[in-house]
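Fold this: Carbohydrate ABC transporter permease
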Amino acid sequence: MNEPLIVRDESVTTRTTTTARRADVISREGSRRPGRLRQPAGLPWILPAVIVAVGLLYYCIGYTGYISTLRWDGASPLQQPVGADNFVRMVGDAVFWRALRNTAAFFVVTLVVQVVLGMVLACLLHSELRLKTLHKVLIFIPVVLATATTAPVFRQMYAPDGTVNGVLDAVGLGALAQPWLANGTFALLIVMSVQIWQATGITFILYYAAVGQIDTGVLEAARLDGAGNLRIIRSIVWPGVRGTTIAIAILTAIGSLKTFDIPFLITGGGPNYATEFLGTMIYRVSVSFSQVGYGAAISVVLLVLAVATAITIKVSSAEKDPADV
């Protein structure tokens, strides 16, 4: 009596399997038909961000490019088209070239020092160091401090009657005391040191995470082979964090081109434009001198330099495909 039931169950199972296979074939054929595009599942979620980016960001970029072709004070209804005159003026502006040199020097110095400090601190905190959490907090605190609150402190430190000169007098080196911010070379170095102090925490965090991704088995094998700490860092750790270094270089380059708050609040771009950067020059030209068209032209150049620098660093640092070697 049970045999017919078994036969019917098998036939049902066979029909169900056949139907599923046919549906799968039809589904595959339908997906291969030309002209039928499937809407991305996440499009409704990213659409608001796309609208904001295209409607606000790129509109502002385009409008800035339009203003760069005008002679305008930013408030008057009179806008005089001048074509590329603002860019021609920029080429002959000695202050612009000095700001560009300061920006390049700022990028090189801050990048090198931040990479060295961040790497050393990351390696130390991956070792058998005590109170690691406390050290991490102390390293990262400058990152969360607003420049507007720390800049007056540095101005007081390097003032003629400030802390630095007071310490020099106390240790018998009063002859070295001077108005540090009135010296162009020292003023630029002070601005660089403040940036390094503030940004090293970010570099440290990135390197700390990157070092943590390196296979500990490789490190242990190197130690068993007799490699010391410096050899391990040079031959294993440093190549292992290469991608992080490239990212830090790109972020530092773009940040250097946009630098404004530190030199503006500590030195105001002086003395004699010694700490003038592209960001401070755009503000001074556009706001202080009411030459919005010229300031917009400098902004366009800054954008082009930022994009070109990021692409150059990425391309020049790209690893070769093993198949091409």
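The CA atoms of residues 76 and 290 lie 10 Å apart. The longest strand covers residues 70-71.
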